[in-house]
Amino acid sequence: MLRAFLDILFPPLCHICRTFIPAAGPLHICAGCRESITTISSPLCDLCGMPFGTIDGFDHRCGACSISPPRFDAARAATRFDGPVREMIHRFKYDQRVQLSRPLGLITAETLAPWAAAITSDLVVPVPLHVRRLRQRGFNQAVLIGQVLAHQWQLPLDRTCLRRIRWTEPQINLSAAERTANVRGAFAVSAPSRVEGRRVLLVDDVFTTGSTVTECARALKGAGATEVRVVTVARAVA
Ligand SMILES: [Zn+2]
Ligand SMILES: [Zn+2]
Q1: Is 103 a residue whose pLDDT tops 90?
Q2: Which has the closest alpha carbon to 73: 229, 190, 191, 232?
Q3: 83 C-alpha vs ligand 2 centroid, how far in Å?
Q4: What are 154-174's pLDDT values in tens digits?
Q5: What are the residue boundaries of the structural domains of the chain, listed by start?
Q6: Cα–Cα distance, 225 to 231 (Å, whole number)
Q7: Confidence check: pLDDT of 2 > 70
Q8: Ligand 2 centre from 186 Cα, in Å?
Q9: What is the Å distance from ligand 2's center to 71 Cα?
Q10: Ligand 2: distance of its center to the CA of 62 in Å?
Q11: Is pLDDT larger for residue 28 or for residue 2?
Q12: What spacing in Å lies between the alpha carbon of 235 and ligand 2's midpoint?
């Protein structure tokens, strides 16, 4: 009754194409737009989660991970960083559309549910923003997505144990090597007792080269975390 009344006052519109959807469901994305979202599936690198260009085949280690294994134990992303997801993430972060954290978080939780069920995690830790960036933006997108994932997967969320202690310039126009140098030493664990001996799920919005989460994993493992696995909504795929 209340739902029906609210639908008249605030008709549910698709987050992507803005058309009216009578049965919006929790995602608020119409069937057509949902289909246009490219989720990442096997075969992929069993470590960094990079999808291989082939349709058939088993998951295996990619060349980059074989040569130099990353600091984290695994990384997975729900979708490719393109099309409507790229647009939603941009509106979420730069147009302050904080309500988009819900569909983005739910798509991630749903797509990666089998993977999350096959591993054991003790807590969700979002990639922190520097306090200056947090003041500019007003919110941390990784915290909002982490809240949805923690709720869906029934894990505690710790948003203060990991801190960004050094200001870093935006990574957007930097090469992979420059990104690594840019974030080196940027993170620290403020409460080691909360991560010591724990299996951490590190959450961010986009996985580009992995330099940010690698640096976070270094700090978390330095503080005694036994495992660090990375979950992102999207992943840039060349
Ligand atoms: Zn739509
Ligand atoms: Zn890999």
Answers
A1: yes
A2: 229
A3: 23
A4: 999 999 999 999 998 888 788
A5: 1-36, 42-235
A6: 16
A7: no
A8: 24
A9: 12
A10: 4
A11: 28
A12: 13
